[in-house]
């Protein structure tokens, strides 16, 4: 989910819990995780740092703790520098630390339903975890959050009324997606992976057919439509490419990918995620293909 949605949900929950004095701390924790968009400034040219990217190591349990500590350290430094009144920072005591950490874990919980998932156990494992209920990111939620923020800023709605209405619509949105998710599962039992689309009635069903990947578009109530098939290996074999899979460039590609195909093109091995290369899925937008020149 986008940072604005994370912030508004955290603010609404802090307000509903009767903790308005801790609201800034909840919000800070909820948005600090997305500061990892800055990580790519130093990691983009170093493939071995592939977890230091948006949706990477900061979106793990360990990362949430570290990012929360850094955020609170920033509050302390800003207070010492006189940028924040001590009463607004040190006055809340340990509750402020707990609020920042709660906001960070709330961020992870909100990202878990969306594809492509988050590496909860990083740095110990780069495996992504997701419920695949929501597409990532959801432009509808982003538009909803922005609209409510503007309305509250302009005084069209009060903060209390705006937060109540926002959470009601937000929860209704999640409920619709969850119902669609549950209703689709009986017809999609044998798939390897099911990717949600912006339309809650549509899904991409991924199948492992041995030597090939098959992708079908499923529409609720109408079943599967036309399929796309990509051969896993063309001009090469699984045994031949195995030594290359440990390369940082390929670890990064696999981390961002849903599927992986390999083709030998005039002595070069081209590793690709066909779903993203051919525009069937747009997110993550980077690292779709790697070309290796082999001896």
- Following the backbone from N to C, one meets helices and strands in this order, namely HHHHHHHHEEEEEHHEEHE
Query: In angstroms, what separates the terminal alpha carbons?
Result: 43 Å
Q: What does the radius of gyration come to? A: 22 Å
The total count of strands amounts to 8
Average of per-residue pLDDT values: 92
Shape verdict: globular
β content, as a range? 15-25%
Q: Percent range for helical residues? A: 40-55%
Q: How are strands sequenced across the largest beta sheet?
A: 1-2-3-4
Question: What does this molecule look like?
Answer:
The chain is built from eleven helices and eight strands. It is an alpha+beta fold and 295 residues long. It folds into three domains: 3-180, no CATH class; 186-230, no CATH class; 236-293, no CATH class. The strands form two sheets. The protein has a four-stranded antiparallel beta sheet with strand order 1-2-3-4, with no helix packed on it.
Can you give keywords for this protein?
295 residues; alpha+beta; 3 domains; 4-stranded mixed sheet; 11 helices
Give a quick precis of the structure.
This protein has 295 residues and is α+β, with helices and mostly antiparallel strands.
Strand and helix layout:
Elements: H1 3-16, H2 23-32, H3 40-43, H4 61-80, H5 86-89, H6 94-111, H7 139-153, H8 159-184, E1 193-196, E2 202-208, E3 212-219, E4 223-231, E5 233-234, H9 238-241, H10 248-256, E6 261-265, E7 268-272, H11 274-277, E8 289-293
